[in-house]
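Throughout this review, each integer encodes one residue's backbone shape. One record appears below.

===
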Amino acid sequence: MIRCHITDRRSAGGIPALLALIERNARAGVEWIQIREKDLDARTLAALVSEALRRAPQAQILVNSRADIALACGAAGLHLPADSPPPRAFLPLCPPGFRIGVSCHTLEEVIRAEAEGAAYVLFSPVFRPLSKDDPRPPHGLEGLRRACAAVRIPVLALGGVTAGNARQCLEAGAAGVAGITLFQGKDPPFQTIV
């Protein structure tokens, strides 16, 4: 199972607190950490990514939206919003093993992401999100099941995932779970997810 911590420095209490969470989660076995700080300037984001790589060498660090920073810092991959250029547009620039994923909100987007070269997708919202308002209706476990069955690449469940419902996501076919709230709480509830 893949556990993906999506960062939010504001809810964490700032960059120093976020880096402490990244380090804690990596030590606890979280496999992927997606640096999703879209409003940071390039220099500050690069510094954050570099420090995350230093503090969490055992985790795969993915950078949201910024291929230039992901590649320059030596991150493990890039995460693209649904409306981005296709993954195959970036692949010629990337070293072997560089992972590019895509956020998907419909079954059609999941299928297209795989066809366009994505290594994985985050499928949301599965449940009502905990960290933000989302006008889209949740897909539920049945929608997640259909998305997982439609492709060969890993599908991670996102949106309202908790320690209490994560196992249901896995049983529906998800390769793992992703989230902000799940990984940024005071107590690490993700440790109970088997």
The first helix runs from residue 9 to 12. The chain has one domain: 2-192. The beta strands are 2-6, 32-35, 60-64, 77-80, 99-104, 120-123, 155-157, 176-179. The chain has a mean pLDDT of 94.
